[in-house]
Write a sequence for this structure.
């Protein structure tokens, strides 16, 4: 690895040339890391729905050509000037947040630029807020936001060039659908080498988000009741997290009954196929529970489901958490009386975890056998060029996470 230090690397990547088009396998050049940056070899990449959301053209700010991918396991190849927290050979998970809060964070990030640049993302005070700002800063430059320098590294340039010498945009500060990518140092969560990167990559987004929504955002207590709408990897992680938190009743809701077996294995006590009901699902759940459930989670990104989740949370104290990312332009609604009578509506990005501090801990819990994640890997592929096959699998309805080994 040392021989490539300071030099451009030529490698394979899947380039998103435009929305609603299959990714194109291309040979690209990845420039060396600049000050404060880290170049990594991507070993495994697990697809997340946010990649597909952008690829399918649902993100109005989507910039093309770009290299998607943000749920990955990587090994540091070389580091730029001033980088001290990771070194070549370290295993890292790129830290990102799904784009759910990008606009908000971008808007406030610029006014706190100095604070962000001088704060570490493990600051103890207002930690989540500051961490969000930090991520907002990264997203502002590396993702697709209204600020100048969009889709680039923090210095406003790209590390990727195609065979015609033209730049390719970065995505979410990660761009892991490439054999090599460049990350900001503050986007690298250094993890133990004991956990295979095939599993560790899952902690980069969806699984951590589901667990964190339960543990951090809602702080689900022992003996509480929970309803989870949408049983993809995120919803199943919510179930797993709720079971670990001691919830006594966990209602799993989906329109695809094939999802119920895994939900039950992970701790669901009731399963509801909402497509088969002759009444609104919220009414059904209120009747099942008399007054509703303590905590509900939307893991679908569908605004009518978000409404149903709120309206079957318990009168007086129910909390409903939006995790799903809705299609551009969609809005949520309910009768205000639902809130007047004591329900709380909230949302979460990356489950409220601070990636650099918390992802290594989640990985360690997995190594210790206290947080199994094998059940999320339903499909495996070899070679970066098989990323399109992984996308097809994800669209197929039976896939939780498709991990591509590069
Ligand atoms: N907030 C965050 O930080 C964050 C992080 C990761 C993912 N996400 C979002 O979370 C959502 C879930 O991600 P995923 O990877 O688990 O997706 P997924 O597509 O694998 O799972 C969605 C599930 O919802 C089910 N579903 C569809 N319509 C439904 C309905 N009307 N009622 C009940 N269930 C229904 C589907 O059958 C599927 O099982 C996505 O919107 C994703 O973008 C958010
Ligand atoms: Zn994601």
């Amino acid at each position: 690895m040392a021989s490539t230090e300071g030099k451009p690397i030529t490698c394979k990547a899947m380039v998103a040339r435009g929305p609603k088009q299959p990714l194109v396998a291309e040979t690209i050049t990845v420039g060396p890391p600049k000050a404060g940056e880290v170049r990594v070899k991507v070993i495994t990449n697990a697809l997340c729905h946010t990649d597909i959301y952008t690829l399918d053209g649902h993100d109005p700010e989507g910039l093309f050509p770009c290299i998607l991918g943000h749920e990955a396991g990587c090994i540091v190849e070389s580091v730029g000037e001033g980088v001290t927290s990771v070194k070549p050979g370290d295993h890292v998970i790129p830290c990102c947040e799904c784009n759910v809060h990008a606009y908000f964070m971008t808007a406030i990030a610029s006014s706190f630029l100095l604070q962000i640049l001088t704060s570490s993302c493990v600051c103890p005070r207002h930690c989540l807020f500051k961490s969000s700002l930090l991520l907002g800063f990264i997203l502002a430059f590396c993702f697709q936001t209204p600020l100048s320098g969009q889709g680039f590294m923090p210095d406003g340039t790209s590390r990727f060039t195609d065979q015609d010498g033209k730049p390719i945009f970065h995505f979410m500060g990660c761009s892991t659908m490439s054999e090599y990518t460049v990350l900001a140092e503050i986007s690298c969560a250094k993890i133990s080498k004991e956990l295979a990167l095939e599993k560790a990559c899952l902690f980069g987004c969806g699984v951590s988000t589901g667990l964190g929504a339960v543990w951090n955002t809602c702080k689900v207590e022992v003996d509480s009741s929970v309803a989870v709408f949408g049983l993809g990897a995120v919803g199943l992680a919510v179930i797993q997290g709720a079971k670990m938190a001691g919830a006594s009743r966990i209602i799993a809701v989906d329109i695809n009954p094939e999802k119920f077996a895994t939900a039950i294995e992970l701790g669901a006590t009731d399963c509801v196929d909402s497509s088969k009901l002759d009444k609104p699902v919220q009414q059904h759940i209120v009747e099942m529970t008399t007054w509703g459930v303590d905590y509900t989670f939307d893991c679908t990104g569908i605004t009518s489901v978000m409404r149903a989740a709120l309206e079957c949370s318990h009168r007086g104290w129910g909390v409903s958490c939006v995790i799903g990312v809705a299609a551009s332009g969609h809005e949520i609604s309910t009768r205000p009386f639902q809130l007047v009578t004591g329900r709380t509506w909230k949302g979460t990005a990356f489950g409220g975890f601070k990636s650099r501090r918390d992802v290594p801990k989640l990985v360690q819990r997995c190594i210790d056998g206290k947080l199994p994640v094998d059940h999320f890997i339903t499909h495996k592929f070899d070679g970066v060029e098989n990323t399109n096959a992984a996308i097809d699998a994800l669209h197929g309805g039976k896939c939780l996470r498709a991990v591509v080994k590069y």
In short: Residues 48-50, 53, 97-98, 100, 205-206, 209, 229-235, 253-256, 259, 274, 299-302, 305, 323-325, 348-350 surround nicotinamide-adenine-dinucleotide (ligand 1) (CB under 6 Å). The longest strand covers residues 37-46. The chain has two domains: 2-204+373-405, 207-350.
